[in-house]
Amino acid sequence: MPFEEITRPRNICSNCGKAMARSYKESLCPDCLDDMLYPKVKDYILHHSVTEMEVAEHFDIPLQKVRRWIRDGRIEYKGFRHDN
Ligand SMILES: [Zn+2]
User: Fold this and answer.
1) What does the alpha-carbon distance between residue 69 and residue 57 come to, in Å, rounded to a whole number?
2) Is 14 a residue whose pLDDT tops 90?
3) What long-range pairs does 71-75 form, CB within 8 A, spacing at least 24?
4) Does residue 26 lie within any of the structural domains?
5) How many other C-beta atoms are found inside a 10 Å radius of the C-beta of residue 35?
6) How many separate domains does the chain show?
7) Nearest 5 degrees, angle CA 69-CA 32-CA 21?
8) Cα(12)–Cα(21) distance, rounded to whole angstroms?
9) CB–CB of 53/68 below 8 Å?
10) What would the 3-class secondary structure string for the chain be?
11) Residue range of the domain that includes 63
């Protein structure tokens, strides 16, 4: 067994422990990354007059993710401007 297989038997999320693909390079799984990121996005939107696209570009995340968070009510922003 290669040395790496002994020291890192599994590639798991350092937060929730969920198994991840070995090729996955982040220490947190996508779900945990979202959980870490969305409060920052929420705070950013609350303090800046920005569009969904500007938020997506600022955090380098897909526009669809921003829209999903807003649609799901994870981010509330009554003054939010829509691009389309
Ligand atoms: Zn996780």
Assistant:
1) 15
2) yes
3) 74/38, 74/42, 75/38, 75/41, 75/42, 75/45
4) yes
5) 14
6) 1
7) 120
8) 8
9) no
10) CCHHHHHCCCCECCCCCCECCCCCCCCCCHHHHHHHHHHHHHHHHHHCCCEHHHHHHHHCCCHHHHHHHHHCCCCCCCCCECCC
11) 3-71
Strand partners, 81: 51
Which residue is it, tokens 């350092």? 14
pTM above 0.85, yes or no: no
In a domain, 11, yes or no: yes
Backbone angles phi, psi at 41, to 5 degrees: -65, -45
Calculate the average pLDDT of the chain. Answer: 83
* 58 CA from centroid of ligand 1 (Å): 23
Q: In the numeric block, which tokens belong to residue 7?
A: 């020291």
Ion ligand 1, residues whose Cβ is below 5 A away: 13, 15-16, 18, 29, 32
CA of 82 to the centre of ligand 1 (A): 31
Whether pLDDT at 56 is above 60: yes
